[in-house]
Design goal:
Elements lengths: L1 E4 L10 E5 L2 E6 L4 E3 L5 E9 L2 E2 L3 E5 L6 E6 L3 H15 L9 H12 L7 E6 L1 H8 L1
Parallel strand pairs: 1-8
Antiparallel strand pairs: 1-4, 2-3, 2-5, 5-6, 5-7, 8-9
């Protein structure tokens, strides 16, 4: 099993824990690709950061088969924090712009509380497709 972590601004300094069948098999750093040995059969995969995690992904793997997965922050996390910072800075010039930060703040609070099991995204990818795109 190969796990690729996207490079992102949010969570840059924190390693994600990788759990297969409920047992921690390692960690993965920002922008890192790592291989984990998994026996053939059906397994569950979850990545965790502090109290937040990805949804549980169930997959089957055969002998000598390599499954590829991609993990990253929640959807739109890459633009959410920079947008909030820009709005806060602009609010010093135009005071009513500060109210535009409220929806961004509520979305972040959602992912840190109720949506904490969807804070990270975890998907299975097709390695052959990735190689053809790179060529």
């Amino acid at each position: 099993m190969v796990l690729n972590r996207t490079s992102e601004y949010a969570n840059r300094l924190i390693n994600f824990g990788v759990f297969v069948d409920g047992k921690k098999v390692g960690t993965i750093a920002n922008g890192e690709t790592k291989k984990f040995d998994v026996l053939s059969g059906q397994h569950t995969l979850v990545t965790k950061i502090d109290w937040c995690s990805s949804p549980t992904l169930v997959f089957s793997i055969g002998d000598n088969e390599i499954k590829n997965f991609k993990v990253g922050g929640f959807r739109n996390a890459s633009w959410l924090v920079p947008t909030a910072l820009i709005i806060i800075i602009l609010s010093y010039i135009v005071s009513y712009l500060f109210y535009l930060v409220i929806p961004v703040f509520l979305l972040i609070v959602y992912y840190l509380t109720i949506g904490r099991k969807r804070y990270l995204t975890l998907i299975e990818t097709n390695a052959e497709r990735q190689e053809s795109i790179a060529i």
